[in-house]
Amino acid sequence: MSTSVDALKHLFRLTDDTGIMEHACGIVPRRQEGYSTDDQARALWVCLEWLDIVSERESGRIYALIDKYLSFMLWAQTEDGHFHNNFAYDRSREAESPSEDCLSRCLWACARLMVRLPDTNRFIAAETMLRQARKYIAGMNSPRGCAYALASFSLLAKHRYPVDYESEVAALANKLVSHYRRHAREDWHWYEPAATYSNGLLPWGLLCAYEVTPNRQWLDVAVESLDFLIRLMTNERGQIRPIGNRGWCTREGRAKWDQQPIDVMKLGLAAAKAYEIVGRSQYYDAAAKCRAWFHGDNDARTAMVDPKTGGCYDGIGERGVNYNQGAEAVISYLLTEAIMMKLTHSGDEAKEHASCVGAKF
């Protein structure tokens, strides 16, 4: 499983000496829009996934990006351990309130680096940031913040780090289940009264927790809610249709537009994890459909990926595709590609192993 680092060329285009810029006009970075720490954490995640995909000879270019994003996150972490999210192009901090989403995305990027690069000096930076932010976990309550943090500490617990993270795993998983029990109805298997953005994170977090603590309740809620989400996000032709951000989705109805690539990626993330744990082909199929959405199997019947630029279009609206190619979109595309390449590769290895075992007997 190997491909060229050239697949990341739009990530390189959007990244300057400070970090990855948030928006673009076409493919050209919009400096006036500045940077977000969210995007640095997600771009760092992309790089860590693609280290497993590109050749070792080409990995040096990815490490250079990793250092930029990691340095930005270190700079963005405040003295109290939280993370400032929004920065102008001149590196000044823009006014904002602390965000659990930003904090938890940074936790995930740090945890992912600690597991992927445990024997490098970069580990020190990631572990330092995570340790300083850990105190906020007990007070965290937003479902998406809980889900990202839950995935982070589950990953560390899975790899048996000397620090005990299992108390955080149990507390965060039970919070998500509590959200679900409060809002779920016979016709509404969800954690909130509306399904809004990045919905796949919520079942994904519980699935990650189940990997380290096989609590059947966590698995049941994850599977029930993921099945519901897949139904919500599938159109009449069997294609993925992200919930539109112009109105979201409630029991009374759903918005069709505007569709965002990040929502497709998060569904693919959850479906891939469910396939790894439960093994049902329907989850593999759902993850594959998420990848297909980027390549034209969508409501616009248009490929969202521009092979010439390496970028991904920002979304689909009622009048068609938004041809701007910002950070969130390309990050979502590259993560979806990595998810499917790894899922297919692991499936092929499992089939090969089963064949060898069968031959012996």
From TrEMBL:
Gene3D superfamilies referenced in this protein's UniProt entry, alphabetically: 1.50.10.20
UniProt cross-references to SUPFAM superfamilies, sorted A to Z = Six-hairpin glycosidases, Terpenoid cyclases/Protein prenyltransferases
**Superkingdom:** Bacteria
Query: A Gene Ontology MF term for this entry?
Result: transferase activity
Q: Where are the transmembrane segments?
A: none
Alphabetical keyword list: Transferase
Provide the protein name. Glycosyl transferase
